[in-house]
cysteine synthase (Ardenticatena maritima), 312 residues
Amino acid sequence: MIAQNSLNLIGNTPLVALNSLARHLRMPLYLKLETANPTHSDTDRVALAIIESAERQGLVDLDTVIIEPTAGNIAFSLAMVCAARGYRLVLVLPDWVPEWRIRLLRAMGADVHVTHGMNNAFARADELANAYPKVFRPRQFANAAAAEAHQQTAQEIWRDTDGAVQAVVIPVTTGAACTGIGTWFKHHQPHVRVIAVQPAESPVLTGGKPGNHHIYGMGAPFVPTLYNDDVIDHVIDISTSEAYEALARLLRMEGLLVGPSSGAAVAGALKFAQTMATETTPIVALALDSIERYVQTDVMQRVLNSTPMLPR
């Protein structure tokens, strides 16, 4: 295959069978590798959908400055889309973001501002928005196009399993993946269960209080604006230790370089599978990003702490 540009590589990500992790189950367990997107994250889908929606509405052209405060994967995705489209991108990052991220984003053409903390990043983005005559704010946490992008993800799952899927298990980040996938299945294949995974230490989706956890890339201390529990069948709580044990297994037993939220998703899928002991229809979990984004955090030590208990 020859893609005409980098944006054509977004989506149509593969499913991989987790043969070692699922060897004791009656049903296959598949992982959808959003890491196969160009910047190794599902946010590529989101960034492209947001920009294309803005283009259709006449909100973005070559004179527009796109401004987003973020500490997450959307920064790389927006940088890629803006580079491919020829748009100017201004990112505002908190100062705890690793230096390599800042350098890479600048290398991709983004104008990067660094502030003290995330609250100041939002405030600085507001200031910058008043400094340019034409500005577009993606606002990924509240932009409906982000959830709509993941309806395509649901269609891919249905297509690639030939309709043989009993449940899709999704770690909750901005809520876009859960809501988009859930919406498509509820409208088109309502028998497929859509399962959200949240940190057990911070069960805000089920009315609990926010708490500290270390499952990076998911589990905001509030219910995301985009999260629609009307399209979610179950919410499964996964602790930090459960997520990292599953992540260690994915690395050691399957050879998959996925991020901590992927460990939570697989742990949730395994927990759900135990309640469906007589079912043989496959379960799909989502791997939203790559572990390489987290090498300068305590993720690797947590993985290594979980590894000794695993079989060789």
The chain has a mean pLDDT of 95. The longest helix spans residues 144-160.
